[in-house]
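Weekly structure sync, notes
Attendees: PL (lead), two postdocs, one rotation student
Agenda item 3: pending single-chain targets
PL asked that the sequence for the first pending target be pasted directly into the notes so everyone works from the same version. It is reproduced below exactly as submitted, 88 residues in total.
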Amino acid sequence: MTDPAVTKIWKQILEAFEDKLQYSFLEQARAVVDIKIEGDELTLLVTTDEAERFFNGEVNRQRLIILSRPFFPLEKVVAKRVDAEPLR
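Predicted structure, written out during the meeting:
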């Protein structure tokens, strides 16, 4: 997460999920090692197959899009599995 603006958006999204007590989302967010925003698309690079399935699930993609609206106008969310150590 080298772009400070992208990092700020991701932190705001995580705070929104924490405020809504969405602990399953926050648990899977631990597997995120990088995020990218291109246009209205959010790409999450994750370290586990479980996190990839979770974030690519229709319900969870929609939750991300809806809860991120106050911070960023997302239209698409994609998770991709990478070999890396999770951020802590």
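Discussion points:
- Residues 16 and 67 are 7 Å apart (CA to CA).
- The mean pLDDT is 85.
Action: rotation student to compare against the earlier draft before next sync.
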